[in-house]
Design goal:
Layout (H helix, E strand, L loop, with lengths): L1 H17 L3 E2 L2 E2 L16 E18 L5 E15 L4 E6 L11 E5 L12 H10 L7 H7 L8 H16 L3 E4 L2 H16 L10 E3 L3 E5 L3 E9 L5 E6 L8 E3 L8 E3 L3 E5 L7 E11 L6 E4 L8 E6 L2 E12 L5 E8 L4 E8 L5 E5 L2 E5 L4 E7 L5 E7 L5 E7 L50 H8 L17 E2 L3
Parallel strand pairs: 9-18
Antiparallel strand pairs: 1-2, 3-4, 3-6, 3-7, 4-5, 4-26, 5-17, 6-16, 8-10, 10-14, 11-13, 11-15, 12-14, 15-18, 16-17, 19-20, 20-23, 21-22, 24-25
Helix pairs in contact: 1-6, 2-4, 2-5, 4-5
């Protein structure tokens, strides 16, 4: 057993060196991270640790069409919510790496790897009918006819394996017999169950950019929320000009907003040209089945919500006004179906707005609105700055994450030495040679071979796909 792990560790370290990830005894660090948060609002969180977990055999077809099985460690992740609260989540992108400290944002299914997955509703069914939503493990074992009972680790590994069956279209089987029984039960039941719809967002606004002339009400933007109190608090930035206020459709000032409410920004006549920001905040629980995508400069694995404490959700929008001339507004949304970013530019002024978007000139007439889909490669970072009159500037940035990754070549089988996605090392501190149940992602899956890795790469942190660490137990069919 040790020799297998040692050989895998050596290949991993060699792959890291060959691929240029290790430079002068440290891991190469990419560019600046993307801004936290989410266009339109929602919950933002930071990945903590892998909690309950177990070993899972993943079987895929290699380039020769032969079945090949490798063992991963997978289970339930914990995340810390910005502003308070915690989340529990499983992975829906097996062959993409991650690491502790990765920033995540809540997104809709159409902006995630679930956008074209016909089995997304089945995944949500599993989440609602397994651990941790069902925390009575005795009852769960009885329902699944698991004679030996279930531990939290077994239940989490079983649930993750069942999810991978539908999210990544792989054959996933926990190595533990009881856990495998639960996986088989969940997959069979989900296939027969009626698909569940996408869950509602925690907090969001339909438009993040409003524009118009002083002396009018700018908007509206529509609020969506499942706030525990039934409403989100609404606040105008302290530096907003005197007299500017947030109002409802009737023009009445508001400090709270319910789901479906429309908000406007009232700008009195004579107010100097300018802008203001409006913030919304709500205390709520995130609905099971909401997707979470990374907001780092390089794509990390996509997660799906399995449990939530009371958490803090935020949303923002801005309003811009001027007496005359072009008055721009810009909104954007990732469009996985088209493989790009939909950028909507509007002109609420009385003169045309000439703008440049990725080297292409556009003229937006007074009162006109246009939506342009800018193509973005899968897993690629996008970063555009759109400028307009009166100092208007809007930055659009993110990473397009629309497809689940596929297993790459093993480091020992490719002349370039590039590691597969599940074996890509990530930046971080030195690893430990021992593990404690769950623990930090940096510790999970380490072995007696870890000091050798540390000696080669110093800060090499082996964090593989959703499984956290690729155990490298190759069991090719027929061997």
């Amino acid at each position: 057993m040790f020799s297998v792990k040692r050989r895998g560790a050596a290949r991993l370290a060699a792959a890291a060196l060959a691929s240029g990830l290790v430079v002068a005894g440290s891991i190469a660090i990419a560019g600046p991270a993307m801004a936290e948060g989410n266009n339109g609002g929602g919950v933002a969180a930071t990945l903590g640790r892998l909690a309950e977990s177990g070993e899972i055999n993943i079987t895929v077809k290699n380039d020769k069409g032969e079945s090949e099985t490798d063992t991963y460690k997978g289970g339930l992740f914990y995340l810390d919510v910005n502003g308070g609260g915690s989340l529990k989540a499983y992975c829906i992108d097996l062959f993409t790496p991650t690491q502790s400290g990765t920033k995540y944002k809540e997104v809709g299914w159409d902006e995630s790897t679930l956008h074209n997955n016909a089995d997304a509703g089945k995944i949500r069914w599993i989440l609602q009918n397994s651990y941790p939503e069902v925390d009575d493990l005795t009852a769960l074992a009885t329902k699944a006819n698991v004679k030996g009972g279930l531990t939290e680790d077994e239940a989490a590994a079983a649930t993750q394996a069942a999810i991978w069956h539908f999210s990544d279209k792989v054959e996933a089987a926990p190595t533990d017999a009881e856990a495998k029984q639960l996986t088989d039960y969940l997959v069979a039941k989900a296939q027969k169950a009626e698909d569940l719809d996408e869950p509602a967002a925690t907090l969001g606004v339909s438009k993040t950019s409003l524009a118009g002339k002083a002396g009018t009400r700018l908007g509206p933007t529509k609020v969506s929320t499942n706030a525990s109190s039934g409403a989100a608090t609404v606040s105008l930035a302290a530096d907003a000009p005197k007299g500017v206020q947030v109002v409802d459709k009737a023009g009445k000032p508001v400090t709270t907003a319910k789901d479906g409410d429309e908000l406007y920004v009232d700008v009195p006549a004579g107010t100097p040209d300018g802008s203001a920001k409006v913030s919304l905040q709500a205390s709520t629980k995130v609905n099971i089945g909401r997707a979470f995508a990374s907001v780092t400069e390089k794509r990390k694995q996509t997660l799906i919500l399995a449990g939530s404490s009371e958490t803090s959700a935020k949303a923002e929008f801005d309003a811009t006004w001027a007496k005359q001339g072009a008055v721009p507004a810009v909104d954007f949304k990732e469009n996985c179906a088209k493989g790009g970013v939909d950028i909507t530019v509007s002109n609420k002024g009385d003169e045309p707005w000439e703008l440049d978007l990725k080297g292409v000139k556009y003229s937006i007439a007074a009162g006109e609105s246009k939506t342009v889909t800018v193509p973005v490669a899968e897993d690629a970072e996008y970063n555009y700055t759109i400028k307009g009159p009166n100092g208007f500037e809007k930055t659009i940035k993110g990473v397009l994450d629309c497809k689940t990754a596929t297993p790459g070549p093993k480091p020992s089988e490719t002349p370039t030495g590039n590691p597969s996605p599940s074996q890509t090392p990530a930046t971080g501190g030195t690893t430990s040679g021992s593990t404690t149940g769950g623990g930090d992602l940096a510790e999970t899956g380490s072995s007696n071979a870890t000091p050798m890795i540390a000696g080669i790469a110093v800060a090499l942190l082996a964090v593989g796909g959703c499984a956290v660490f690729f155990l490298r137990k190759k069991k090719a069919a027929g061997q």
